[in-house]
């Protein structure tokens, strides 16, 4: 009996060893299959939100900014352009103030003239209102098809025609956004802003890292360089989802006021922008010019210059910037 017991024991050990090897191989194969699936899934998700899927945004994770890049196809500097622009604005700066900030979206190369000077933003502040409303849409707190009832306090006839519908009219959030951005409608702006707290509005300025101009303690002012950060947050989709950043920029490419930065570029070139007018001597226009090879941010602000003169000046500067970029591209 002892001999039989001695002969069976090694066989059992061998069987257990083979069984453990099979289990190990099974787990190894399962791990490989899972990782292949995970990589495939992540690739699929990235493709679904890549900048290539959209017309107006370029998610920042897919397009790193490297101002030290040596790619000859990238615009690395604006050497010579500053002298050209200074020649245009010299006579106006004697009695008023002109400031601008220009930046290449690929390399981060920039040009500034009085770019940190503070200006009353006027209707430029309709962009952050739009962004915060869309953030609430993204969170599911409100929907684009939700109606808002216009109240007497919303009515403002200075800009836009929505005031004609009068108090009591029900307008969807999407329609209000379109009116506010396309026609710079003040009634639409007031109705949308009423849906937000000051804390909610402040979040967008905290996100981009500039003082909230709605706060009196910050001087109710914004600079061309600072405002460009709002445009960047839309272009690189850092505040909103790619789909909602795209929607915001779609609104901004179809505005009624196309005689400023847009007039300085060929008609086939898209410009996502917002203008602002304060009184009779303050005009701004800030946007993204979608040059085929080198898109760029351009923000121009003026103060104490007649609107007719500042309009012409913005068009001239825009044309000179575009022609310079186009020649270098």
Tell me what the structure shows:
The longest helix is centred in the first third of the chain and has 47 residues, at 2-48. This protein is 43% helix and 12% strand. It starts with a helix and ends with a helix. A hairpin with a 5-residue loop joins strand 1 and strand 2 (110-113). The model is unreliable at 1-8, 36-51 and 62-74 (pLDDT under 50). It is built from 9 helices and 7 strands. Helix 2 runs antiparallel to helix 9 and helix 3 packs across helix 6 (198-208). It folds into 3 domains: 1-48; 59-122 and 131-138 and 197-328, 3-Layer(aba) Sandwich (Beta-lactamase); 143-194, no CATH class. The chain has 329 residues and is an alpha+beta fold. The strands form 2 sheets. It has a 5-stranded antiparallel β-sheet, sandwiched between helices. A two-stranded antiparallel ribbon has the order 3-4.
């Amino acid at each position: 009996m002892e001999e039989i017991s001695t002969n069976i024991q090694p066989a059992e050990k061998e069987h257990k060893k083979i069984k453990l090897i099979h289990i190990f191989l099974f787990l190894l194969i399962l791990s490989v299959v899972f990782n292949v699936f995970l990589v495939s899934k992540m690739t699929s998700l990235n493709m679904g939100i890549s900048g290539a899927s959209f017309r107006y945004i370029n998610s920042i994770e897919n397009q790193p900014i490297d101002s030290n890049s040596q790619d000859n196809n990238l615009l690395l500097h604006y050497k010579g352009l500053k002298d050209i622009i200074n020649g245009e604005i010299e006579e106006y700066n004697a009695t008023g103030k002109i400031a601008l900030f220009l930046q290449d979206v690929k390399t981060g190369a920039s040009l500034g003239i009085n770019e940190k000077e503070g200006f009353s933003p006027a209707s430029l502040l309709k962009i952050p209102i739009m962004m915060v409303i869309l953030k609430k849409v993204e969170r599911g707190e409100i929907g684009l098809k939700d109606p808002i009832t216009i109240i007497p306090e919303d009515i403002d006839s200075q800009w836009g025609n929505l005031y004609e519908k009068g108090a009591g009219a029900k307008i969807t959030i999407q329609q209000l956004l379109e009116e506010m951005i396309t026609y710079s409608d003040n009634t639409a702006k007031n109705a949308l802003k009423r849906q937000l707290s000051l804390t909610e509005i402040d979040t967008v300025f905290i996100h981009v890292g500039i003082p909230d101009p709605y706060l009196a303690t910050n001087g109710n002012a914004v600079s061309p360089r600072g405002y460009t950060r709002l445009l960047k947050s839309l272009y690189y989709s850092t505040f909103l989802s790619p789909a909602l950043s795209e929607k915001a920029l779609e609104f901004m490419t179809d505005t009624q006021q196309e005689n400023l930065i847009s007039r300085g570029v060929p008609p086939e070139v898209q410009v996502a922008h917002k203008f602002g007018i304060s009184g009779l001597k303050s005009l701004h226009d800030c946007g993204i010019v979608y040059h085929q090879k080198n898109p760029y941010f351009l923000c121009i602000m003026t103060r104490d210059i007649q609107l007719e003169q500042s309009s012409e000046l913005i068009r001239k500067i825009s044309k000179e910037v575009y022609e310079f970029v186009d020649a270098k591209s």
